[in-house]
Amino acid sequence: MLPEATISHQSAKRLRIRIPSMKGDWSYFRNLGDKLVKFKDYEVLQLNPLTGSVLFIDERLDIRGIQAYAGENGLFELRLKGARTVPLSRRIAEPLSGTNAFLSRATGGFLDLPGAAFLLLLGVGLFEIVRGNFRTPPWYTAFWYAFGVFTKSIVDKASQKEEAR
Known about the structure:
5 strands, 5 helices, Alpha-Beta Plaits, single chain
């Protein structure tokens, strides 16, 4: 009988699987590592026998592929019941992450996509004030959106740091 594994953490690029029954079993995790090296459908693999966990990091994680490989090779039985699905908002935002990474690299980390949106909307608001256009689109709406984009990026970064722990 294969040890039971569950998904303890899942995000767009990370998947942590816990195998509670093998916690502390160094030989099991050594063997698991040797077999998962042959799988190669990930960028980074981290095994932690102390916590009984396996961390996969990749741009496009295939949970079903990991589940099938583990079952076929007698590694563990991955239970997907209770696995978190990726929210719609994150699925919509994911394509923008490449643009965000490019902008961040191009500016040496000085500016990211939320920062650019913030500056753009702030500039539109200031332009409308200078032009004397207080009707449509209202300058205060541009300021409000700029503030919303800026605070959302701060909240997202804080939640990413929290998920990494």
